[in-house]
Amino acid sequence: MFHPFLDAFPAFVAARSSFGLQNADAIAICGLLSRLRLRWMAMKQHSTDNTIPTAAGDAVDEADSAVAASKTTDETTAKTTDKIANKTTNDTSPLPCDSAVPRLSRIALPVCSVIGVALAAAIVWAWFPHGSAAWTNPLHEIDAPAHYYFIRKILGEGVGAATHLWPNDEYYPPLFHLLAAGLIKLASLFGVNLSIYAAFNTVWLASSGLVWPIAIQLYASYFTRRLSHSAQSVCFPRFANARKSSARNVASVVVPLFPAILALIIPPLAVASASHPFQMLASGPLIAFGLAATLLPFWLYATLRLLDALATREHLVKWIIWFFVTAGVCMFAHPRIVFTWLLLMAPFVLTRLPWKAIAGLAGVVVLGAAVFLAYMMSSYKSDRYFNPASWFHTFVPNRTVPEALKIYVTDNIGGVQGWFMAAIVLIAFAVTVAAIIRPQWFAANRADSATVPGASAIDRASDSTSAQPHEQVADFAAMPADRRNRKTSASYLIPRSDASQLRRDAIAILLAFFLVGLVYVCSTALTGWFPNIVAAAWYRAETRPLTMIPFGVLPLIVFAAVVLLRAGRLPNVTKIIAIVLLAALAISCQFGNTVRSALSDAVYANMTIDDARPDEQLTATKEKILKKVVKETGTDSVVVSDPLNGSMYATAMYGADMLFPIYNAKAEKNGAIFGQTENAFASGDGKALTNTVCPLSADGDAYFLSMGGQAPSLQMFTFKQQYDTFHDQKLIDQYAKDGTMRKVQDYSNMASYAKGWALYQFNCQ
């Protein structure tokens, strides 16, 4: 019951030093508080560990002498305080488990972290298709030719091309493509001719198999690294009859078991979901945004550490620098990742910062939204901006709400393992709710957690959370006066209870979980003005919100696990059960994960070139035709064709100068020529057509390729009708008849479905 008064002792010492209290009464009170505090700590240590540290008892005796000594002068009191500090620091008798802690704690956690990341990398590598086609053929998905084109553009024009990768010279986030192009250049220095496909795959494997697990490990460590020794250590008997021995006589080894095992579990769990990083390769591929999502945990970690630094006023410059560095890298990978960051960090900002700071940040967000709206309105003309119900009018839900919720709570894991994941998520949800309603049930013992305002519920005084009470007193007494005063004012004069901090972080984690789920459900199962607004930042479709699912599920699980493991009232057996369940989850999700396996099969199917689906974007016949086209035209003559029939792969595979090298060349900025060519071809005026296309070619020759209809897998492109003119056989025959262009290669005999396929050369003389 003396706990609040005894904890005020360091503040009393600092106040006495600051205000020059010299009277005997104040000195006597100081000594009395010292004696009571140390006596209480010894009693608490005895009740908690069944062992009375000799240092705490000695410190009580020293406090008695300090009372007498303090009655003379301030100098004597200071010397006695230093003596107490030295006594408690240097004369502490090691507990039975203490001797093994330094060596094992330095090894277990980093070793388990490395093993965990290595396991995750092995899982990603095992998932990636292993056939030769994966390294010799392009992915044939809607965005794949664009990514290959961007890499080729950087290789051809240099790093400066990164500022205008799009065919109309618009900006596109270039980080992934710069890495791939840089890898090709690096390999060439050693005489290795690395293909674009191999470089593309290597960068994806490195980012998904190494960077992503490391990033999630770091983000999770914000919570797990602050587990106190009382909650994270388990003593295992060294001898068979150890159960019969008293606690103080058990010879045992102390291992920081729980954080080490979590470091082993979290990376494999991070790659269990099909949502990320695997979905990024199977949808699009979603390379730029996917890479930004892979890097996002670094930014999240830096943000949380910056919030801590703002509260404690320690290491502020360091974490400001790290915040801006990680933010810059993530936004360089893809600027729109800022919306995901805002979604995940807003709850922590709301629960940690004072209302004035929150209001200021809200103003910044509103200003940013206004700037973004102005950019969109200037770049994309539309009369529907202020009518949200009319946005994304072509969107059709691809799931029901129950299906979307199932995918979310199962972390997009298929089979029985998915239901296991759902059960763990619900348990984690219940634990987090309990931490909000009754945080004192899970709050760490005062002895295990220093109180620092603004720190997370699991972070107390940064790296000092494991200090015992007598060690904290000794450290405080040994501090320089200026730092002692600063720490006193930060940690004791404005205290926040551990339970209050736990409630704040639990609320933030739960809010982030709800917000991610809301965005995903709106993006895939709902229509109307509200889901249009909610999902607009992620292009409305489920592709990008799907990659966000692990950011809602994994932090919830990790936070709930840490809450359980640090709870002083829970027996070790409960904590061990929690660890066993998490380990079982991480292991089981690697086997029979049907959703993830189906993605692997789909990716490999999109790397295999055959004629099984003759109307698709890239087939064996089309590959042969494109090779003949480039042999005829070279790489300097421009070739006009509908990119949705697969002709855009001529650039990706052979470096051809296709007028439409990607499915959406865009008419904005320097892209007027694309619309002009479409209109000229549709006009029926041969002279207008040649005057439009002939100047585009570097060598003065221009060609037109007819290669069938648009592939079914590319029909999601909203503006696909703009290319319909290139399929008008009457116009093609007319231009061939009036001499506007002449047929130079006929491919009708290459397949039964290739009737009318041919290469024409425009009459540019």
Short description:
With 765 residues, the chain is mostly helical. The protein contains 32 helices and seven strands. Helix 10 packs parallel to helix 14.
How would you portray this structure in words?
By secondary structure, the chain is mainly alpha-helical. The protein has three domains: 3-93 and 462-491, no CATH class; 103-127 and 195-434 and 502-602, no CATH class; 620-762. 60% of the residues lie in helices and 4% in strands. The chain has helices at residues 3-7, 9-19, 24-49, 54-70, 74-90, 101-127, 133-136, 144-157, 175-189, 196-224, 229-232, 257-270, 278-282, 287-312, 316-333, 337-352, 355-379, 401-409, 415-437, 469-478, 481-491, 498-525, 529-535, 543-547, 549-566, 572-588, 594-605, 620-633, 649-654, 672-683, 686-693, 729-737; strands at residues 234-237, 252-255, 638-640, 657-658, 702-706, 741-746, 758-762. Strands 4-3-5-7-6 form a five-stranded mixed beta sheet, with helices on one face. Strands 1-2 form a two-stranded antiparallel ribbon. α29 (649-654) links the parallel β3 (638-640) and β4. α22 (498-525) packs across α23. Mean pLDDT is 81; it is low at 1-24, 46-99, 229-255, 446-478 and 483-495.
